Amino acid sequence: MFPCSRIPTYCNRLSKIVSSSQKSSLFKPTFLLANHFSYLSGTTTHPGSPTYVSKRHFHPSNISKDDLYERLGVPKDASTSEIKKKYYQLAKKYHPDVNKEPGAKEKFFKIQEAYDTLSDDNKRAQYDQFGTTESAGGYPGGAGGQGGFSGFHGFGGTPPSMDEIFSQIFGGGGFGGFRAGGPGAGTRGATNRGDFRSSGEDLTSTLHVSFEEAVTGVKKQVRIDPVLECDTCSGTGVKKGAKSTKCSTCQGTGRQTFSMGGFHVQQTCGSCGGTGSTTRKEDVCGSCRGRGVVQGRETISVDVPAGVDDGMVIEMPNYGDAPIDGKGPRGSLYIKIRVDKSDKFTRKGSNIFYTANVSLSQALLGGEITVPTVNGNVDVVIKPGTQPGDELRLRGRGMKKVKGFGNGDFYLQIKVEIPKNLTSAQRSAAQALSDALENKTSTPKPPPSPPPESNSDTKPNDSNPDSSNKSTHEGFFKKFKDTLNSFHKDNPEKKE
């Protein structure tokens, strides 16, 4: 055996394995110099002191099916700038302080985890090679594995605020965004901005309006926090009169290429931070610290048109973010409208539906009721014999059409109120009505025999023989109506 006095713990264990395996061909040690593997025991051995170290057995790590590039919605060859832009866009959409929807917080955690890996060149290269950020083969010093998100480092274990995210993307914290070394001090925002034009990212917001406001239209105030071009430097990131110069390290590409073990590896330029240009520290704009953009806050007026429906989206061009890597127009602001439900009406598109209570006497004999609509009260005639569930249509009394001309219709759904308790007089009237209706549908009885003729010369009565019967029926229906009306007056029910 070779001397192992300088690394007792490791070699004592290894010696036992070698001794028990010398008679077997299953274990074939490889002779290597210990100074190349001194990290295994944490001690330093003499260069001339050899030891036996077994061949490492690499095992594949569990690769998550949840691709980090897909989380951010970027291609695998996306630049660092593209990754930052996409992360900032998604962070503003799903940040717990902004989005209160269920699942938004978990979505933000996944986005943050993906950005932490893909924004770091070393972690990204390791992830691209092994599909995970765990150390390959178990070597010490590996980063935390994908799926093992251990919180927000540097933010006390809590999600970073939007201001912190802004500083994380664009730099900040005094002159922390500057990179020392190399030809000049590079800034993260001082790119050759005048040579590139792009539009800024879009913003989204939600605006709640009442049902009545949706009927008439309303002007509302909305607060947004867009990224704005710095007014001091006009987005250049440098003071007026100063200029940025092309980075001599990367020749303006923002990337450096290295050869490692026969492979070509690209990473962000360490001199300019990926911007492709450098600016002297004294020439950097003090308002934006060389970013070219600032985090703004605006309150804007939004004209909500009459007839707007729940879920509709209003686009306001040029109210989104300013581009973070060049000159160009701002993005758009998309405002999603949420319309509160009405206690009275039901809406389907531009049509409005309302349920009206009608008394039994009104349903039988007809009448007139006053109905509230979205455009004011309307008197509606109820025809005799109106049935429960009948629907009346009032043309043009609905919601104003956002697209097109005119208004929708107003539909009146009839609900007949049936009395639950009757007085003896009302019960008698109802029974009499029932008898009258049954007699009307039954076989008519023969008329009674005429009275005996008198000896006088009086002419026979030429009046209508049914006139007395008609008068009787009219008196009965009037009495029945008055009886039921008195019931509804004494027992009013709550209108729907």
TrEMBL record:
A Pfam family this chain is assigned to: DnaJ_C
Claim: Cytoplasm is one of the keywords in the record: no
A GO molecular-function descriptor: heat shock protein binding
Location of the region described as Disordered in the Swiss-Prot/TrEMBL record: 427-496
Alphabetic keyword roster: Chaperone, Metal-binding, Repeat, Zinc, Zinc-finger
Position of the signal peptide: none
Residue ranges, compositional bias (Pro residues): 444-453
Every J domain range: 67-131
Domain CR-type as annotated: residue spans: 217-297
Any single GO BP term: response to heat
GO CC terms in record: cytoplasm
ZnF CR-type span: 217-297
SUPFAM superfamilies per record: Chaperone J-domain (SSF46565), DnaJ/Hsp40 cysteine-rich domain (SSF57938), HSP40/DnaJ peptide-binding domain (SSF49493)
Protein name: DnaJ homolog 1, mitochondrial
Organism: Smittium megazygosporum
